[in-house]
Write a structure and sequence with these properties.
Length: about 725
């Protein structure tokens, strides 16, 4: 787990060896303790280099060990021994030095990094803080403001930035271990008193209290209820105000609270869930490790509206040659200007050249004859999409993959328009498509393993977190969202206000409440779909009650607002009022409150008091219940897929893991009991009826989330 050798006569070389990221498991820690002792005890050895196997220094503590009984030597004394060593210890950093990995390097007397290395203390993203001395050493090394930035955000820095900040002593473009060994030879025998970071005073800041308070306020605002960023500020403040040993005590105290917290469990679950979804498998038996993606030399985007533009930008930024098609020259040129602006802005931010030359623009579908993959991003209209698919089938070379960007239309219906339905998949991007991380890759019963593998790999190349999901109305994300927004509207009918509902949801940790999001995305979008589905507008069957559709409760509130031209931010009025059309600051609207009162009076509804708890239970449990149905239907492979979709696409607070993980934290029995309660109170809302999988899980004693797949498998095998 740590190998030891002596090279160049007098340099002890310790190599961490725990693929794939050399995490500091108990065995690795033991290996380090043993090899350090060996090196320090060997009179021939004058200096020591610590490196990692396979081009990565160390990904930090072994996250899989968290929550279990700790065994093996602890990190803090191990790093302390390294720092106290009387022979120079040099860290040779290749790949990544993260978390405990960087803390280990900070215990060394010198750090040499490869130019492509990344360094950071990302513990905050796991609900923790750098508790192997990182919160105390980093501020002493680089100063309080820079340490606060790195530790509270968990961001990784490049080797160049690490050099500039003073985290590393040297950056090399060559073999890092060779450079470190050369360096170790050059410092052998030199005094080390000035190299032990724990002995440094923290660099002076004029008003450390004001600085920390300022950062604390910012952190509280952006944390949406997460506790780790706050503890990180407190730990760094301790470094700035207390001697090292007392600072270490404070670090330990703060870590003890975080370590056992539900938030840390949720964030660590989320870390592994994000990785688990890339290992997709679909009901046909196709899976990530047996399916070969098709190489993509050139791709196309059809339709340059908001989504098409974002997708084009993301493809070009991923380095792929793209040809884009719009029907009219004027729209094409308008889109070209917008895409170029977006690329220029992005490039400026990242300090790189804009990849403008990756994109070509055309009004002619015939230009797509030689592309390997097309993403159709035309208007969300089945007739139009079908027409485009028929045209593409005729134009594209054999083997071209046809992908549709849709937020919920039937991908199988579209596939049926193609000569090769096995080459059709859905790619549900989220707006703005060049920013949002989530991609739902929608497979149908005929989609080939290669088609799914190619779309998943393309998503990864575009920097997306891609999740493979089955085809159904709304796929996973929007299917669940429908239930959430529906409950929110019902609550307004029953006595709540948009302000109250949004406040409850924002306090839970969503960046925006459901009605603010609706105003932002535009109420007209859903209205058009409901009109097409004959749920709203003139096509509603005559004699139909305003509040019932297809035998179920229906809330026409959003339709009524649309009929008044209240489409949200774009019209300056929606569930809230804005200072002007396009305004962004939502203000409570007395008109809306009056409108709700009139609506209730008209329909004989008596407003009752609704509290935050009911808002959360109704909105979130209805959504969670649908998540269980999605698992039952085999549309998502496991709870992790749903949770990743919600965290990356719908603003679900990451420190709450995702809706399915959250239901486990609340307790499945409780979720079941509350759903039963609400279904009894609202029998005209069938979606509140607890689904079979939820009942089955409770009957099995509510196993933890990682055991649900077994229960789901049993359920499927009985169907
Ligand atoms: C390193 C990466 C950047 C690599 O990225 P890449 O894309 O190449 O690869 P993947 O991300 O796909 O990962 C490959 C593979 O490896 C697994 N993995 C990655 N990192 C770890 C890890 N750190 N531990 C375990 N496993 C890891 C990953 O899951 C993949 O596995 P798979 O099966 O899917 O192939 C990237 O991986 C990355 O960013 N990793 C995470 C980096 C990170 O966040 N590091 C910080 C870890 S936390 C830490 O270091 C804490 C320290 O500060 C030490 C703290 C001391 C602890 C003391 C505990 C005291 C407790 C006291 C409380 C007592 C309370 C009481 O009981 O009273």
């Amino acid at each position: 787990m740590a190998q030891y050798s002596r090279i160049s006569g007098s340099v002890g070389l310790i190599t961490l060896s725990n693929p794939p990221v050399n995490a500091l498991s108990a065995a690795v820690r033991q290996g380090i303790v043993d090899t350090v002792e060996k090196a320090l005890g060997d009179p021939q050895v004058k200096s020591v280099v610590i490196c990692g196997q396979d081009g990565i220094f160390c990904g930090g503590a072994d996250i899989k060990e968290f929550g279990k009984n700790m065994s093996g030597p602890p990190l803090i004394p191990m790093i302390h021994t390294i720092e106290c060593a009387t022979k120079p210890m040099v860290a040779a950093i290749e790949g990544s030095a993260l978390g405990g990995g960087l803390e280990l390097a900070l215990g060394c007397h010198y750090r040499i990094a490869h130019s492509k290395a990344r360094l950071g203390l990302p513990e905050v993203t796991l609900g923790l803080l750098p508790a192997a001395g990182g919160s105390q050493r980093l501020p002493r090394l680089i100063g309080v403001p820079a340490a606060l930035d790195l530790i509270t955000t968990g961001r990784h820095v490049t080797a160049a930035e690490a050099l500039q900040l003073g985290i590393v002593d040297q950056v090399t473009d060559h073999a890092t271990v060779d450079a470190a060994v050369k360096f170790a030879l050059s410092v052998a025998g030199k005094p080390l008193d000035t190299r032990r970071i724990s002995t440094y005073p923290c660099p002076h800041v004029s008003d450390v209290d004001a600085l920390c308070e300022n950062v604390m306020q910012k952190v509280r605002k952006s944390a949406h209820g997460a506790i780790a960023p706050i503890a990180c500020v407190q730990a760094v403040r301790a470094a700035a105000t207390l001697p090292y040993t007392q600072g270490m005590e404070r670090e330990k105290e703060l870590m003890a609270t975080l370590y056992t917290s539900g938030q840390a469990r949720a964030l660590q679950y989320s870390f592994f869930a994000q990785r688990a979804v890339s290992k997709w498998r679909i009901p046909s038996g196709a899976r990530w490790d047996t399916s070969t993606p098709r190489p993509l030399h050139k791709v196309a985007v059809i339709g340059l509206g908001t989504m098409g533009r974002g997708i084009t930008v993301a493809l070009a930024q991923a380095g792929l040659p793209v040809i884009t098609v719009e029907t009219h020259e004027k729209q094409l040129m308008e889109a070209k200007r917008a895409v170029s602006d977006m690329l220029n802005r992005g490039a400026k931010r990242r300090g790189v050249a804009p990849p403008l030359d990756k994109i070509s623009y055309s009004c002619n579908l015939q230009d797509l004859a030689d592309v390997d993959l097309v993403i159709e991003a035309v208007f969300e209209d089945m007739t139009l999409k079908k027409k485009v698919f028929r045209q593409l089938s005729a134009v594209c070379k054999p083997g071209t993959l046809l992908c549709t960007n849709t937020s919920g239309l039937d991908v199988d219906q579209l596939a049926s328009q193609s000569r090769n339905p096995e080459l059709v998949v859905g790619m549900h991007f989220f707006a703005p498509a060049h920013v949002m991380k989530l991609l739902e890759v929608v497979y149908g019963p005929q989609s080939s393993p290669q088609a799914v593998a190619t779309a998943m790999q393309l998503g990864k190349k575009m920097g997306k977190v891609s999740v493979a999901v089955g085809n159904c109305r709304g796929f996973v994300g929007n299917r669940m969202l429908k239930l959430y927004t529906e409950q929110a509207s019902f609550l307004l009918e029953e006595g709540a206000t948009p302000d109250l509902v949004d406040q409850a949801i924002e306090e839970f940790g969503f960046p925006m409440g459901v009605f603010k999001v609706s105003d932002l995305s535009g109420l007209d979008v859903g209205w058009r779909i409901r009109k097409e589905e004959k749920l709203a507008g003139l096509s509603v069957a005559s004699g139909q009650s305003t509040r019932i559709r297809e035998g179920r409760r229906y809330s026409p509130l959003a339709d009524l607002l649309c009929e008044q031209g209240r489409f949200g931010q774009k019209t300056g009025r929606g569930w809230y009022q804005y200072d002007k059309p396009g305004g962004r600051v939502a203000r409570s609207d007395p008109w809306l409150h009056h409108f709700l009162e009139e609506y209730r009076a008209q329909h004989g509804l008596v407003a009752r008091h609704i509290d935050h708890q009911e808002v959360l239970e109704r909105c979130l449990y209805a959504m969670i219940n649908e998540g269980f149905r999605i698992l039952e239907d085999g549309i998502a492979a496991g709870p992790e897929d749903i949770d990743v979709i919600y965290v990356f696409g719908y603003g679900w607070p990451r420190h709450r893991g995702g809706p399915m993980f959250y239901s486990g934290m609340v307790g499945l029995e409780k979720v079941l009991e509350r759903l039963e309660h609400y279904y009894q109170a609202h029998p005209d809302v069938p979606h509140l009826q607890p689904c079979r999988l939820l009942r089955r899980l409770v009957a099995r004693g509510s196993p933890p989330v990682h055991k649900w797949r077994e229960v789901i498998k049993n359920l499927h095998s009985q169907l």
